[in-house]
Amino acid sequence: MKLFLRVLRWALIVIIVVFAGLLTAAHWVESRDSDEEIAESFRNERVKAVVHRYKVADRTIRYIETDEPGQDSLPVVLFVHGAPSSSSFFMKFFKDTTLVNHAHLVAVDRPGYGYSDFGRVETSIVKQAQLLQPLMDHYRKASYFMLVGSSYGGSVAARLAMNNPNLVDQVVFVSSALGPGLERTYPISYFIDKPPLRWLIPRLLLLANDEKLAHRQALTEILPDWNKIKAGVTFLHGQRDDLVFPTNVAFGRSHLINAQSREYLLPENRHDIVFNKREYMTQIIVNILNAYADSVKPENPPKILMTANH
């Protein structure tokens, strides 16, 4: 019995030490890259990534865009990340030459994440969209404008499309949380929201948890405005996603009164499409851009008539 108690005591000590170590390490994980880290990451790339910031109300918003000659004539693709995450989440797309050759790429740190006032989360989807509106206005002259929203970023992308029906041409929802309550909330989320656990949890996880607990209400707030989306819509979702349920696709489709949609449901995928199906996701985006390019080509190029001199 004494041996058992001794082993149990040491096992508990090891568990506590490991847990404390993981918690301490997690406090240093912020899922974001500094301006300098981004510049270094693209040092040997043909197309560079350039970092910008703008002020709106009392907030600072950081965004990143590709930088190359002639980009003003290219379609614009704006990536909106989920939680917990940042614009760094999409940097592999910025290095994909196939995609870069087709579009001017932009990724934004949502309020509270990355370097957009990190730690100061905004749980309202309506207010997040208001803070990102200056970025939308910056690209208002784009020949074609696409939003790509991942997870909670899809919720914000939906609101941006509602607010900008004459600007947004296409929205790609990737594993996106769109319907109120159509996502998993673990019981631990409610405990994390209160002291003393709240004092121990890393800021990045607290941001995501605060947003999760407010998400049903935030989505309910934009529910009446789905009819304002006029852009084409593409849904990309894993059928085994048990974090943001696949039923979000049916919800979105049923609420798109003034928009055409198509959907890609991946039978083997969970909430991991951006990580594990990046090439597939890229090809879908490129196919949409190619369809747009084909649509603006003149059907019958002007004929050159040759006349003979007599």
UniProtKB/TrEMBL annotation:
What does the UniProt keyword field contain? Hydrolase, Membrane, Transmembrane, Transmembrane helix
Query: Which sequence ranges are marked TM in the entry?
Result: 7-29
**Gene3D superfamilies attached to this UniProt entry:** alpha/beta hydrolase
Q: Name one Pfam family in it.
A: Abhydrolase_1
The record's Gene Ontology cellular component field reads:
membrane
* InterPro entries linked to this entry: AB_hydrolase_1, AB_hydrolase_fold, AB_hydrolase_sf
| Keyword Transport attached | no
- What name does the UniProt record give this protein? Alpha/beta hydrolase
